[in-house]
Structures are given as structure tokens and as C-alpha cells.
Design brief:
The chain has about 550 residues and is α/β, with parallel strands linked by helices. About 25% of the residues lie in helices and about 15% in strands. An 8-stranded parallel barrel has the order 8-9-10-13-14-15-16-18, surrounded by 4 helices. A 7-stranded mixed β-sheet has the order 1-7-5-6-4-2-3, covered by helices on one side. The protein has a two-stranded antiparallel ribbon with strand order 11-12. The N terminus is likely disordered.
């Protein structure tokens, strides 16, 4: 968990307010003159440090009235900024004649987006002037998603070591001036606690339109999420067009052109789309077109959703798909599933599925088990996506204790549940050095229709009780594992797909998404109460 919080209190006493240079910004010492907004009227004169006793009264030499400003308060945003250095001044708000300028052509996309949102002019690489927003790259050491936002001298500067951080600075500014508000004077230094901040959507069980997904991308970007997971293959459907296996694609699906638009929009918001083809379970839609690949037990009974991993043709088909979609999803991550393979949920897998037991022994030796064969399957799929320079992740119940075959060291653990029979606690993965992403089904699973023991998660419960350390149930793992927990993902699963419409899903996840990103950006206790946070979310829209 991160260290002590350094955000300025809402009404910080003058003796505790420090400037960025480490000095004290003392109340009443500097009288700051009134501001002229771009295109507006009024006067502006220089601050006079000799007039400490006459704050709010203009120097006798000046023909124009001046005013002093109270110390600024930290901006109210979601997620909250990590640090704010208060200052005296009028702040900034967009006005006629204001521009967005950049110091590097690489920031053109961020600049044009912000200019459109704030109704300013995008001027490209120009020197900043009063009323402008300047975006720039620097040599900051806070990481690629860090940024510094400075409101001073009637203008705003947003700088960071990489484009992503500058983009997040523009999201902070957008929220600050939402609805005609003012960005407070001073300096924001901000960065996320966790590098992976995700939202996962099950589009296999329920078809979501491309337009609806694009709306979520815009929402995620404004909230500083950086991953969108698309689970597009399951028993109920396969929802993206395929050139190599068109026979498996469901009637309602996304075209590749639609996916490319989603991926491009996500990239413009610095969001990586993480695709998932779950295997060797959850392949019912694929099996419907290839019944010869269906897993059957010793009695010949079909096992729903599971392919027979003793058959090379099953691996060939899945690998065809992984290779086909590699170019469609150019991001750094692939989710390869691995969960709930039904052959491993029976009392004696070897007796129930003798063909799997025989294949395990043939491939890995006399002591190999069905679990070893499943681990080998997972490793082989990981190798395929790794061949495309992707990092693979798999669900935690696809990793097994002991055995002849061990899961690939590079596989990241998507930890979602401890409710399965024989489920391994998070500490087993962490103590082995695994990197983990938090998908805790107790807090972060929005399952349509609330089947089994699921209930719709609330933003308040996430906000008040969950942190990235809470991987299973409600108890956190030891803080020494914090660095191995890469982040978390809120997930929508569509088990009962007709239980809610698209619009109902969007409304239902609105506050849970905001609470989740707050705790991923800064896992410490939030400064605002839940009622204050909710009111802020309502105001920001």
C-alpha cells in the first residue's frame, strides 16, 4: 500500500501550506491582483509583497482596485488527485480566445481532444499566452502515467514524462472546469498507485452494440481506467467475426471493422483492449460447430463447454483463433482463460476421462495427471500469444498445486474466486512470486440476474471496504505483497443475459466503476465520505 497521504486538506492552515519549492505560502503575505479572463474586462496588476497589512486593498500608487485570494483548495475529481500544493490566485477556466498548445507533436491527439471538449482552439506548437492550456513532455520520474498540472499566471500547464500522463492531466482539468467551474490555482502532482486499472465486459453471453461499448470507453478514459477486457467466446456465443473459422460466429456479433474502431478509440484514451478466448472450458459456441471436439466421459456423456484436450485438433482450432486476432488486438495483454475445466471438477478425473489420463502420461510421463495435461494446454496457449509479444494472464483456478507440469512463470494470475472446491488462497500465488490482477468476485463481479450467491456490487461497499490487497473474500493479504498486485478489474458477467438491458447495465455499474478506480488510483482511505463522493459523481456527470 502506498505511503502517507500528502493531499492538502480542504481548508489548510497557512502554517502548513508549502510551496513546490519547499517554502511556506503565508496567508496575507502576497496580495494578488484581480484576473482578466481572455476576452473579458477588468484590471490586472502585479502582486506586491510589501503590502502584507493591506490584503484586499490596492497599493496607493495603483489607480485600479486589487484583491487578494484565499489559498486554493485541492480540486475535486474522480479519482481524487494524490497531491495538491495550494496557491493564491484566481484559478483558470476556459473562455473565448483561449487555446490549447503543445510542445511536442506527439501530443496533438490529446490537445485536439481537450480543445474540443473545452470549446477552445487547438493551436499546435505555439508559445502559450494568457488563457491557454499548454501540454508538454518532460523528464519527470513519477512513471509514464504521472503528470503535473500547474495553474498559474492565468494559464494551465500539463506536463508528464509520457503521453498517457499528460492525457490523465487533461482528464483532471476537464473535471475541474466541468459545468463552468474553475481549475484552482496551484500545482497538482498525480500518479496512479496501480498500473492496471480495468473493466471487463462479457460480450459472449450477451451481445453489446459497438456504440454502447464506445460510450463505455469514453467513460473509462475520463475516469483514468487503462484496460478494457472483452470476453468474447463462451458457451452462449462467439461474438467477433472470424475469417479462419466463420462457422463458429454467432448471428449477433461485432464486425472486425467495429472492433477496430473500438480499439482505436480506446488507444486514443490510452486504454488497452485485453481480449479473452477462454479455453479449454467455456468453448460451447465453438464446439457447436465442431461436435467432434466435445469432451466426453467414460460413459460417452458430453461435458458442457469443454473440449477434449487430448485431441490435437482442439488445440489447432484455438490456436488458429489466437493467431487470427493478434493483429486485431495489438495491446500488450491476452487473457487465455483456463478456468472451470469440468474434467477437473469430478472426484476422479482419470477414471472419468481415461483418454485425458492416457494423453497426460504419453506427453509428460508415467506420473502425470489430468491436471498436468490441463496445465500443459494453458502453457501452450500462452506460448502462442507470447509469440506475438503479448503477456498472458489466466484465471486463478487454472493453476494447480504440485504436479509434474508447472504453469509458465510469465503467466499472470487473474484472481477471481476462492469459492471453488480446492481453490488456492491468494498467498500461494504471491509467495511463489506470481504477479496478480484483482478480480475479487466478492466486490468486483456484476453478474446479470444475480445467479447462485451473487448480488450486484455497490459502489459504497467497494469504496468503504475494498482495496487491491483484498483479493479473496473480505480479508486483505499482507501488505508485503502489494507490489505484486498489479491492479484490479471490475467485471460484468452476463449469466442471465436478459436480466438487464444495455442501459440498465450502464446505470448499474456507474458508481461501482467510480469507486473501483478511486481505490486503484489511491488505495488509502478516501478523504471524502461516501455521500460526498456520490454527490461529486452526480455533479461531474
Amino acid at each position: 500500500m502506498t505511503g502517507g497521504r500528502r493531499r492538502a486538506p480542504r481548508r489548510q492552515a497557512w502554517w502548513r501550506t508549502r510551496t513546490a519549492a519547499g517554502g511556506l505560502a503565508v496567508a496575507g503575505v502576497v496580495a494578488v491582483a484581480a484576473v482578466v479572463w481572455p476576452g473579458g474586462g477588468g484590471e490586472r496588476s502585479a502582486a506586491d509583497p510589501s503590502k502584507a497589512a493591506t490584503a484586499g486593498v490596492s497599493p496607493s500608487a495603483s489607480p485600479s482596485p486589487t484583491r487578494s485570494y484565499p489559498l486554493s483548495e485541492a480540486p475535486r475529481t474522480i479519482p481524487a488527485v494524490r497531491e495538491h500544493t495550494a496557491a493564491r490566485g484566481p484559478g483558470w477556466r476556459p473562455a473565448s480566445g483561449g487555446r490549447v498548445v503543445v510542445d511536442d507533436a506527439a501530443l496533438a491527439d490529446e490537445g485536439k481532444l481537450l480543445a474540443g471538449e473545452l470549446k477552445l482552439t487547438y493551436a499546435g506548437r505555439e508559445d502559450a499566452r494568457d488563457g491557454d492550456v499548454e501540454l508538454g513532455l518532460n523528464d519527470g520520474t513519477g512513471g509514464p502515467e504521472s503528470y503535473t498540472l500547474t495553474v498559474r499566471n492565468h494559464r494551465v500547464t500539463v506536463k508528464g514524462p509520457a503521453e498517457a500522463g499528460v492525457f490523465y492531466g487533461t482528464r483532471t482539468l476537464k473535471q475541474e472546469v466541468h459545468g463552468g467551474g474553475t481549475a484552482p490555482e496551484g500545482v497538482v502532482n498525480d500518479r496512479p498507485a496501480k498500473p492496471q486499472r480495468g473493466f471487463m465486459l462479457d460480450i459472449a453471453r450477451k451481445h453489446f452494440t459497438a456504440g454502447w461499448i464506445e460510450d463505455r470507453v469514453r467513460e473509462l478514459g475520463d475516469l483514468k481506467f487503462n484496460q478494457l477486457g472483452l470476453h468474447f467466446s463462451d458457451d452462449q456465443g462467439f461474438r467477433i467475426a472470424s475469417d479462419t473459422h466463420p462457422e463458429i460466429v454467432s448471428k449477433e456479433h461485432l464486425s472486425k471493422a467495429e472492433v477496430r474502431r473500438i480499439v482505436a478509440l480506446a488507444a486514443s484514451r490510452h486504454i488497452t483492449v485485453v481480449p479473452e478466448i477462454d479455453s479449454p472450458g467455456h468453448l460451447g459456441a465453438v464446439i457447436a460447430a465442431h461436435p467432434d471436439l466435445q469432451l466426453r466421459n467414460v460413459s460417452g456423456t458430453a461435458t458442457r463447454g469443454a473440449v477434449d484436450i487430448s485431441k490435437p485438433a482442439a488445440a489447432d482450432l484455438v490456436d488458429d483463433l489466437l493467431n487470427e486476432y493478434a493483429d486485431l488486438f495489438p495491446g500488450a495483454y491476452w487473457h487465455i482463460g483456463g478456468d472451470e475445466y469440468q474434467a477437473l471438477t469430478v472426484a476422479n478425473p482419470a477414471a472419468s476421462f481415461p483418454q485425458l489420463a492416457a494423453a497426460a502420461r504419453n506427453k509428460y510421463g508415467a506420473n502425470a495427471s489430468v491436471a498436468d495435461l490441463a496445465t500443459g494446454w494453458l502453457n501452450d496457449r500462452a506460448a502462442v500469444v507470447q509469440g506475438h509479444d503479448r503477456t498472458a494472464r489466466a484465471w486463478n483456478d487454472g493453476f494447480f498445486r504440485g504436479g509434474t507440469v508447472q504453469a509458465d512463470d510469465g503467466l499472470q494470475v487473474a484472481y477471481w474466486t476462492g469459492k471453488e472446491i480446492g481453490a488456492r488462497p491468494p498467498a500461494e500465488y504471491l509467495s511463489a512470486g506470481r504477479k496478480v490482477i484483482n478480480y475479487n468476485d466478492e466486490f468486483l463481479y456484476y453478474v446479470l440476474g444475480e445467479p447462485q450467491t451473487f448480488v450486484y456490487p455497490t459502489g459504497q461497499r467497494i469504496y468503504e471496504q475494498w482495496t487491491p490487497l483484498v483479493l479473496r473474500g473480505t480479508d486483505p493479504v499482507p501488505a508485503r505483497y502489494d507490489a505484486q498486485i498489479l491492479g484490479g478489474s471490475f467485471a460484468v458477467w452476463c449469466d442471465l443475459s436478459n436480466a438487464q438491458t444495455q442501459d440498465q447495465v450502464a446505470a448499474g455499474i456507474r458508481m461501482p466503476l467510480r469507486a473501483t478506480v478511486q481505490k486503484l488510483w489511491d488505495p488509502g482511505k478516501p478523504e471524502l465520505s461516501w455521500s460526498e463522493f456520490s454527490a461529486l459523481a452526480k455533479r461531474l456527470g
